[in-house]
Amino acid sequence: MYQFDREAYEKRMRWFREARFGLFLHWGLYAIPARGEWVRSNERMPESEYLPYFDEFSADDLDPKAWARAAKEAGMRYAVLTAKHHDGFCLWPTKTTEHNITKSPFRGGKGDYVREMCDACRRAGLKFGVYCSPWDRNSAHYATEKYVEIYHAQVRELLDGRYGEIFEMWFDGANG
């Protein structure tokens, strides 16, 4: 059973307040139309217009090492990657939904961008965190008990140790 450790919490928060400067990397399907992560909502874009971006998601020229190196050279101390935004697209090979990076053209269906960015950040000397939206516009189960199970499973996947220490986790967007 989890026990809140106030001393450990204060130590983590002190580090974060002192770090002050970090990279918050928003990247996903919404990067393709290049009009922000809220493009689907802002433009009232129907799912039929948005989902084709899934089939275009290859990012062949994307270099996580260059992102991490540039962040470190700029003086940043940490990076937070949007592992899943409100559109529900997961940047890791989750078992909870087909709406994930392994079903897209990214790295021939064998990609795990959370892993790539995590490793690049650690090599560059940056702490690594993830953003995982509780909102999921793609899930037919959203706002049901089944979705709560799915979302908890996604969070467990991100924190089960496969990515090492995740220094922080951002939860955002539950108010839809």
Strand order of the largest sheet: 1-2-3-4
Helix fraction, binned, reads: 25-40%
Biggest beta sheet attributes: 4 strands, parallel
- Could you give the order of the helices and strands? HEHHHHEHEHE
Secondary-structure-derived class: alpha/beta
How large, in whole angstroms, is the Cα Rg?
Answer: 16 Å
Per DSSP, the total helix count is 7
Give me the count of strands.
Answer: 4
**Mean pLDDT across all amino acids:** 92
Word description of this protein:
There is one protein chain. The protein is α/β, with parallel strands linked by helices. The chain has 7 helices and 4 strands; from the N terminus they run H-E-H-H-H-H-E-H-E-H-E. 32% of the residues are buried. Helix 5 runs parallel beside helix 6. Strand 3, helix 7 and strand 4 form a beta-alpha-beta unit.
Any key phrases for this structure?
176 residues, single chain, alpha/beta, four-stranded parallel sheet, 7 helices
